[in-house]
Amino acid sequence: MYRRILVAVEHSPADKAILDHVRQLAAQVGSELHLVHVADGWAARNFDQLQLRESEEMKDDRDYLAKLAADLTAHGLKVSTELAMGDPADELIRLTEERGVDLLAMSTHGHRFLNDLVRGTTVSRVRHLVKIPVLLVRAS
After folding, report:
1. Which domain range does residue 103 map to?
2. What is the CA angle 93-99-84, rounded to 5?
3. What is the CATH number of the domain that holds 116?
4. How far apart are CA 3 and CA 98, in angstroms?
5. Res 123: pLDDT
6. Exposure b/e, 26-43, CB count within 10 A at least 16 = b
7. What is this structure's pTM?
8. Number of domains in the chain
9. Average pLDDT over residues 44-67
C-alpha cells in the first residue's frame, strides 16, 4: 500500500504527533520512511546562488534528522533523511515527485482565521498541489 512515506518534520515539538503515527503505520505495512526537514532561513534560501556554507542552524537540523532516524531505526524501521533548503511548500511538493513516495505525512497546528494565513500556508499549498495522498495529523 504505502511502500515509501515522506515525513515532513519541522524540528519542533509538533513532530512528535506525526512521528508517533507514521512509526506505527510503517511498522504495520512495512513502509520505508524518508524524513525531510526544509531549512528556510536566509542562508538556506540563498545557499546555492551565493555558494554559502551551512549555517549552525542547518547543521543542527542535520543532527536532529540523524537523531530521529536513529530512534526510528531502533524500532526496526528503514529510514532515510534529507535536509532540503528553500520554501517549505515548494520543496515538499518537489520532493514528493522526485523521491518516488506514495504518501506525504505532516503535522498540522489547527490554526484558525488569521493564523491560517500566516502559519497554515505550507499545509494548504502542499495538500492542494501534490499528486499523492497526504496524511495530516494534528499536533497537540
Report:
1. 4-138
2. 60
3. 3.40.50.620
4. 15
5. 78
6. beeeebebbbbbbbbeeb
7. 0.86
8. 1
9. 80
